[in-house]
Amino acid sequence: MSEKHLQTGDELPAYGGKMRLFAMRFCPYAERSVLVLNAKNLQYDLVYINLDQKPEWIFNFSPKGTVPALEYGQGKAIFDSNIIIVYLDEKYPDVPLQSTDPLRRAEDKMLVEKFAGAQSAYYTAAFNAPALRPDMVETYHKGLEMLQKEIENRGTKYIHGNEPGLVDYTIWPFLERFLALPLLGKNEFAIEKTKYEVLTNYIEAMKNVPAVKSYCLAPETHAKYIESRAKGNPDYNMLDTSAVCCMRPRKKKE
User: Fold this and answer.
1) Of the residues 27, 216, 245, 246, which is catalytic?
2) Can you give the pTM of this predicted structure?
3) Which of 31, 41, 112, 122 is the most buried (most CB within 10 A)?
4) What percentage of the chain reaches a pLDDT higher than 70?
């Protein structure tokens, strides 16, 4: 599949009969949906979108032209990563990714919400460095410490349990990108093993989860994209096959 991002004037590819995810290759929110589709072994097509020069037809699937958007039937779509991943988990329950315990599901949602401060600090560090303040770095590390403590308290390999779940696939895309910050000279954002041993072990475990391994990008690749975007000219089509951890596994079922 081509990594080309379609833009203004490009035609909408013909519908192939499978679910279709409209995404941007470097978007962490779109990645959440990809990971859940992969984890559930679902058949789907990916259509990448240039978010600076959006094709006109993307607004038929996402009113604000944002990604991800999931076309679940020809011309029928839902948008927003949190809506999409919960829909997929409920629609295709054979590989359940949420706890059956309502309290644990609530705790997972609160964990994601509490981690949002670290995500916000990442965006400032990556794309608006002049606005970065010391308290943002502090917020970032508080988020990491909170996440590490939660993993310790749960006593499981993944946040969800002995297998990764929706909460892991929701948080992972940001952890993947956090690893690029030291390569951009932001050493204060490094996730040092001496301080974050449990968290770094978790990161290494997540890298080897098949659903993640088939889509994740190396920190060097994220750093290259971040640099291009920070300069005002995001290089959406920079990837070749060597940049991907491994090829996406063949999907097994509708």
Assistant:
1) 27
2) 0.93
3) 31
4) 93
